[in-house]
Write a structure and sequence with these properties.
The complex is a heterodimer of chains A (about 110) and B (about 120). Chain A has about 110 residues and is mainly beta. Helices cover about 0% and strands about 55% of the residues of chain A. In chain A, strands 2, 4, 5, 6, 9, 10 and 11 form a seven-stranded mixed beta sheet that branches. In chain A, strands 1-3-8-7 form a four-stranded antiparallel beta sheet, with no helix packed on it. Chain A is globular and about 40 Å long. In chain B, the strands form two sheets. In chain B, strands 2, 4, 5, 6, 9, 10 and 11 form a seven-stranded mixed beta sheet that branches. The chains are: A mainly beta (about 110), B mainly beta (about 120). At the A-B interface, strand 4, strand 5, strand 9 and strand 10 of A face strand 5 and strand 10 of B.
């Protein structure tokens, strides 16, 4: 069974740039997986940041960007702010209408 | 403005059926090309995709839940529902409903509702 992988944790300095990744235990992520990214703070519902690899959801600032880097999907935050400290989840489309979430990355801004 | 609101019992006994409804306001559940889905999150854990229903009625389920899961739409009430049978403590989670225009993962999320499975 293929598992979607994310870094368990990451840290970034305020104003810095960080790239979170989303991979597969078997195979490479491509645009055909329509990778999407979500941000979640404790006690809140997730918020959609990026879908279909690199399309920002409505109202999402431009410092969030999605891409494919090598064999993984990536979410890059440029100019990190304190309120970017959150959990970030990716999801991949596996075909036949089925989606699988990654385990999430806890981002610390310090 | 689109709003989704989950509702249902907050406590379900083991072996019983978990039933939740998502009420959609600010938009029609019958609109073309929209997918309506359920996602859950056990306490302290990550997100799990449960399943989706297309506006036409086609359903797509997480293979690990498929044998226990039914998602349906009631267009007259502008609602869609989830039924998960034979629940165990492992089904304890915050359940989110969401709309995905086009099926590309651009979810508009409900606020979520906690369902606890316990006797």
């Amino acid at each position: 069974q293929t598992v979607v992988t994310q870094e368990p944790s990451f840290s970034v300095s305020p104003g810095g740039t960080v790239t979170l990744t989303c991979g597969l235990t078997s195979g490479s992520v491509s645009t055909s997986y329509y990778p999407s990214w979500y941000q979640q703070t404790p006690g809140q519902a997730p918020r959609t940041l990026v879908y279909s690899t690199n399309t920002r959801s409505s109202g999402v600032p431009g410092r969030f960007s999605g891409s494919i880097l090598g064999n993984k999907a990536a979410l890059t935050i440029t100019g990190a702010q304190a309120d970017d400290e959150s959990d970030y989840y990716c999801v991949l489309y596996m075909g036949s209408g089925i989606w699988v979430f990654g385990g999430g990355t806890k981002l610390t801004v310090l | 403005q689109l709003q989704l609101q989950e509702s249902g019992p907050g406590l379900v006994k083991p072996s019983e059926t978990l039933s939740l409804t998502c009420t959609v306001s600010g938009g029609s559940i019958s609109s073309d090309s929209y997918y309506w889905g359920w996602i859950r999150q056990p306490p302290g854990q990550g997100l799990e995709w449960i399943g989706t229903i297309y506006y036409s009625g086609s359903t797509y389920y997480n293979p690990s839940l498929k044998s226990r899961l039914t998602i349906s739409v009631d267009t007259s009430k502008n609602q869609f529902s989830l039924k998960l049978s034979s629940v165990t403590a492992a089904d304890t989670a915050v359940y989110y409903c969401a709309r995905d225009p086009g099926g590309y993962g651009d979810y508009h999320w409900g606020q979520g509702t906690l369902v606890t499975v316990s006797s």
